[in-house]
Specification:
17% of the residues lie in helices and 41% in strands. By secondary structure, it is an alpha+beta fold.
Length: 112
């Protein structure tokens, strides 16, 4: 038996939701192999508030600055951050290079 196309109320809605999800920016994390090669993970307790430059991909690559929490790091310069994208309910977890992360309230260079 086939489906009755006159009463198919779900397919158009699911298609629209999928297209909307595909148009939202998705964060791009460092590959797992790269993170593993930077050394043993060390967790921060409590998490450190930071501003981070997160690469995102929609159809093209871009970078967004977000306020986040640094929750782990490695000696080789990788930092795991947690942030909630604008308009979303759930946090994203992204591994970044340390030079893309700056502590909030701590200047990167001394003023003089």
């Amino acid at each position: 038996m086939g489906t009755n196309k006159r009463y198919d109320l779900y397919t158009p809605k699911l298609t629209t939701e999928r297209e909307e999800r595909e148009r939202k920016p998705h964060p791009v994390s460092l590959p797992d192999g790269v993170v593993r090669s930077t050394g043993r993970r060390r967790d921060e307790t409590p998490p450190v508030p930071v501003k981070a430059l997160v690469p995102v991909r929609v159809v093209y690559d871009d970078v967004v600055e977000v306020e986040a929490d640094a929750i782990a790091w490695t000696p080789g310069g990788a930092v795991l951050i947690r942030y909630t994208p604008a308009g979303e309910r759930f946090p994203e977890y992204v591994w970044l290079w340390a030079n893309a992360v700056q502590r909030i309230g701590h200047p990167s260079a001394p003023k003089g």
